[in-house]
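Morning run. Coffee first, then this:
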Amino acid sequence: MTITNILLTLVVLVVAIAAIFYYIKKKKNEEVETTINVDDKTYTLDVMKEFVKRRLDEITKVNLYDIGLSEEELKRRKNKKYELKKALKGCTYGDVNDKKYVQELIYDLLSSEYGVDETNISKAIPFDIPSLLTAQDKFDILIYAYKKDFGYEALTELIKKYNLADLKYIEGESKPSYVITAKEIEDIYEKENIQLSFSDKLSIVVQRIYQHYKGYSTIDEVRDMNIDGVSGGVSGLPESFLSQVAQTASGDYLNQVAEHKVPRACDSIWIFFQGKSIRLAFLSFGTEAELKRVCQNIYKYNNPGQLSDTNGYKINEMKDGSRVVVVRPSFSETWAFFVRKFDVKRATLEQLVRDPGKEDTIELLKFLVKGARITAITGEQGSGKTTLLMGMIENIYETMNIRVQETAFELHLRKIYPTRNILTFRETDTISGQEGLDVQKKTDGSVNIIGEVATDPVASWMIQAAQVASKFTLFTHHAKTFPNLVTALRNSMLRTGVFTDEKTAEEQVVQVLNFDIHQVKDFRGKRYIERITECIPVENKNEYTFDHRNEKTLEGKFDKFFDNATHYFTKSTDRQLYTYRNIMEYIDGEYVITNPISDQNLKEMRENMDATDVEAFDKFVEKHWGKKLATVSVSADDYEEANKPKRRGRKPREI
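And here it is:
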């Protein structure tokens, strides 16, 4: 082959290689242009969200073995890929650390790959033109700014600073309500005059993209805050109602519905803040599909099973310990969820009991626990029963093993007391509360704690266990009065077939139950202990006589017989099995120690305390009800008569 031919061949090869390289480069540029076509829509939230989803999908699905990496680089990339997969899964369960990891990655993708800069970021959210910002935009900016200073107390600080939790009248409504309106958010935003750097703006954009991709939509940041809870889908018109409205409503009303002036179910977002249910009128999920997406994702931690039309509700916990309840049609009229949070750091008696007279009330609560009294904590939903229970548990002696039974994990006692012997059980689809309580008997527990006595079998077993299976029991219940509590527990015993006679069942209840602590949440959302009530069983005295033997006449013998018969029928028909009295009451905004504890309970409480607590308890009894009452032995009637309540001139109130 001549030199000329060789040179021609080389030239052809170079031209071919150059052509191939040019073609590949052109194709790549076309793909990039297709991926990031710079126009007015390139930097909108929806387009950037699709880019983030595609890129994260590529990162997690790429086959690292096809790239030809070194062993060290392969190992590093595998670890990074695994960490991302784990974070993408964990962030949907409410794990704030996984959420931060995913958000940091999105931040890097947008700033380094997508080309978001100071100029084009305002196409996503118009930061520089306040008049174009929506109420949600302004709220997101406010929460971001407050979060930098106050962390997860940001929403609490914002609400307190501007009195957003006060009752107020809003346009179109005749009665005041707890609501935060778009107008209030806009006014606050104007007052705050927040200055944002590019990094701040990008972080807010990242949060908006994240919450519609892996988060919980508009409640994503709200759910993370240190509030009592958040719920959605619990007000407004469900989609199923719209067709009914269309058939019956007037034209004006239909226009209002079409223009979203009438709240829909997907516009329903409520928070539970310091005992108050507050509607966030400025936030919305936007569509029924978005509300449905949140409901389908928010309960998934630890794979609790599928939410379906057949199984229309799920009760579960989230990774941070929040309790979540989700319901769906046709069980409920619309998709809805309820997230309830429990702040374990604040669950101390000193934090919970704040009104005048708190010192004596806190002491009394501590003595009830140290004295091993079987105690019910009653009250309506949201009145603070579980939180008070958490605060009381702190005073159980460390030598006692604690066993807990709950519907869903709420107390999380091992987070607070990691060195104590504590084990919690909960109901599952295959294990009932009754079975769980049966297992507890075989786990060397000293104290049984039942998160909520909500079913008849659990109530029945609780009474039985309190008699023989543990030293004492603490539980919560929804009863409104003390007689209601006794009646409810008695009826549970009857319905489960443990007893068939009402009097016998009631007698078992009152013999077990020592005290009832009743929590109240008033219409302003204030939570306090309304009363502490003692149950005093009435002794079944033998009042029958044999006086008929001393009678000489038949008429006299009949009279004595009828006396005994009268005693018998009185006991059979209307025998009083217990009395009750308030040991402490909340009167005129103040906790007041009232009637004395019965002698029997005083004696048993002292027997269960150590020497130091016995001494403190004796001083407490002497201070409020007289000298050395804990050591004397008198009947309950004599004890009550000798120790009239000292109530600073107030007349004792009927329960």
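Residues 28-38, 629-655 have pLDDT under 50 and may be disordered. Good start to the day.
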